[in-house]
Amino acid sequence: MYYAEIGFGISTGFLLFLFWQGFDVVPMLFVITLIIAAVYLNHAKLAKNSFAKKEAKSSASTLIGFDDIGGQEVAKQELREALEFIKDATRITHLGIRPLKGVLLNGPPGTGKTLLAKAAAQFTDSVFFSVSGSEFVEMYVGVGAKRVRQLFEQAKKLAKSQHKESAVLFIDELDVVGGKRGQTTSNIEYDQTLNELLVQMDGLSFDDSVRILVIGATNRIDMLDPALLRPGRFDRQVKVDLPDKKGRLHILALHTKNKPLAKNVSLDSIAANTFGFSGSHLESLTNEAAIMALREEQTLITADHFQCAIDKIIMGEKLDRVPNQMEKHRIAVHEVGHALLSELTRPGSVATINIASRSNALGYVRQTPLDDTYLYTTKVLTDKIAVALAGAVAEEIQLGNRSTGAASDFKHATELAKQIIHSGISTLGIVSPEDLSKELLHVTLTSIIKETEKYVHNILVDQQDLLEKISTLLLDKECINGDELRDIINITP
Ligand code: ATP
Asked: Fewer beta carbons within 10 angstroms: which end of the chain, N or C?
């Protein structure tokens, strides 16, 4: 809150009022100035102390090795290579190689950047210091720059006290402190903090009694000031991406090592079902599954617990809010529409249909990705549009009208149609997205959606009995898994 600013406004107004009434305001002005100075100094001191405490805590955190990090083979390899420079200082100086001062880890949240930095500290037998970019910056000018200096000093002190020759200084959210200077969102305090960081990095040398390696992490590399990325500072960049299937399997294996799993749990199938999950999602998944087993007072974690945990992570926590019976029926018809079309166009593609209200949806169908896919053909994208539209079409066929429940499906369908157009695989051929007129985009997009809608209608109108039968069962059970669905519609994937 802006208490200081509000207080300042009120006191100025009050003083002006007194002055206007003929009072002598000079003594009051003097007292107020003293109070403001005391508050400022006290705040700066508090901020300094809390920062120092935080550093001490983070330096004590336990280190881990590269083997404790799942997947990320390329990132680990690149980082290890860069660290060899630090380990083999004599050879490096002999060959006249410029010492490495900074490594930048760039990737989405929860992919293991902090873990990699900790592993780097262990690999190089260094002390580990961690701080987040947002902790540097206070509203008081000069505090951030001072903290940067303190950080480098304390890292050296700690290394000396532990008889180590090097320290890894990990700065998470580097974009907060290292954003481009002189931007409208930036201010003098941010600029001074970044300048100090550059000065400190430039001052690092191989001859120092404690060598410091700065590891920065960000998921907004485009926001960073170019000065940080120029050679001699963060000149090694390591991409830390979302894990592929093999990586997910490795991460799941690491996080289930200490958990009792039932025989029916296949980590391989969980890895296949979690495309797009980060390492922290996977850690949370194994934890949620264990909590579910505990709630049911079971001693082993089963495949069902993992399925429910995946649903929870994708769709959010179950809600107490229960829709009325008519709405529930509509939701069931809608979801069965999605599932039937998915199964009829790609047998084996449905993992679960669920109509338990969750924070992110009233009901949902989770599909099994066949494999990690990074490229899509027009057919695959049109099939995805068909599945997205099938909920509303099923409502229309079974209940005679549509509802607002399909709004997010339509949004998804139009995004997919746009992807077809912008990728140059629509009837328009190759287009320049910036030069494409809004009208032509609209006409082409509508024609893709309308054609697919007709296709979906033709399929589902012949399946009215199945739609009714499965939605009645779903209303009763709340959740049907893919195998049960395939049994009913007699499909073998
Ligand atoms: P952020 O960008 O949000 O700071 P991050 O990339 O630094 O995230 P971490 O803090 O390293 O992510 O990971 C968070 C947690 O997720 C870890 O403590 C760990 O439990 C789990 N995790 C993430 N990636 C991996 C991985 N590759 N192997 C094992 N566990 C992982």
From this structure: N
